[in-house]
Amino acid sequence: MNRHIIDLFAGPGGWSEGLRRIGHTDIGLELDAAACATRAAAGHHTIRTDVAAYPTAPLVGKVSGLIGSSPCQPFSTAGLGAGTDDIALCHQGLDDLAAGHDTRAALRSACAAPHSLLAVEPMRYALDIRPDWIALEEVPSVEPLFAHKARILHDIGYSTWVGVLNAADYGIPQTRRRAFLLASTTHQVAPPEATHAKAPEPESLFGPGRAAWTTMADVLDLTSGDVITRGEHTAGGNRFTTAGPAWALTGRARSWKLAATGSGPERELSTVEAGILQDFPADHPWAGSRTKQFEQIGNAVPPGLAAAVLGTVLEPAHSTLAVAA
Predict the structure, then answer these.
(1) How far is residue 256's CA from residue 258's CA, in Å, rounded to a whole number?
(2) Of 293, 321, 220, which is closest to residue 13 (Cα–Cα)?
(3) Chain mean pLDDT for the chain
(4) How far apart are CA 188 and CA 45, in angstroms?
């Protein structure tokens, strides 16, 4: 029987693109129409569905790997942060599922933010399906929930790791920090080894040092300049240089302006450029309005980071080195 990799809240395909780079494919579960259209145009298999309503019984025995990046807006500092008040309800939901009780409906109605309880959905799938490995990603503030999930998974036989990774440490031109939970029933898990550092490292007896962080200018072929994060607004904005990685992209990057050094003209960051900063190929087929495209880009996992993470949880026989051989 063929066993599949399932990607919950699959979005436009960050995890899927990462898997493709190391020779694997997944089936994405996604509700947003624009994200589904992007996935279809990029050749990623998708079931358009509400992850919270999708039944797990048909998946039992058919899933080798489970990926999940639940919507981050309720917990993100870039959003309203309304989910902060719901963290206790999410912890309760995890404990209830681990005890065999599905209280999601009651807890959802008590949440201040409607989507907060989606953070427990990957645990429902994991407990019901028992995949060989799991990889989850969220904003750093969700790390305590990941630690809670890791304790539950450890109790049923998984090796686990929880921590925060910076995308810039893996060659992504963006200082995006995200929490990850990695788990496996087949081997000990650990985070991927960083390939880049803020400052380049010299060669040592153990081999070459890590390369310097990749800059915006490197990948967008820009001359020196700045990014103005609030575009035409005259107050409250921030600036950062294109001589370093971009700040973490969200949907609000649609208002970013690129300004040449000095008093040169400003222009908007394009969706193609935003996608490149998120490590997607320049020709990735983004669907939907400009706002929806930036939303998809900001919510996605950078494919290069996804590939690095997934290489640590896939079985050794299916690792990047085995595929390359």
Answers:
(1) 7
(2) 293
(3) 91
(4) 30
| CB contact at 8 A, 212 and 201 | no
Q: Please enumerate in sequence order all residues whose Cβ is within 8 A of that of 125, keeping only pairs 6 or more positions apart, or say none.
A: 6, 8, 56, 59, 66, 68
Task: Quote the CA–CA distance of 90 and 118 in Å, as a whole number.
Answer: 9
What are the sequence ranges of the domains in the chain? 4-196+301-324, 216-298
pLDDT in tens, 230-256: 755 555 568 899 999 999 999 999 999
C-alpha span between 284 and 276 (Å, rounded): 9
What distance in Å separates the CA atoms of residue 241 and residue 39, rounded to the nearest whole number?
32
User: Which overall architecture, per CATH, does domain 4-196+301-324 show?
Assistant: 3-Layer(aba) Sandwich (3.40)
Q: Which residues pair with 28 in a beta bridge?
A: 7, 46
pTM for the whole structure: 0.91
Q: Residue 113 half-sphere exposure, CB side, CA atoms within 13 Å? A: 23
Predicted pLDDT of residue 187:
94
Amino acid type, 254: R
Beta strand 45-48 with 133-138 is: unpaired
CA distance 44 to 196: 29
C-alpha 301/C-alpha 135 separation (Å) is 12
Gap between the Cα atoms of 191 and 189, Å rounded: 7
The answer to whether the CB of 38 falls within 8 A of the CB of 14 is: no
220 — pLDDT class (breaks 50, 70, 90):
very high
Find all residues with CB under 8 Å of 225, minimum gap 6, and list them.
241, 242, 258, 259, 260, 261, 264
Contact 132, 315 (CB under 8 A): yes
Other beta carbons less than 10 A from residue 4's beta carbon: 16
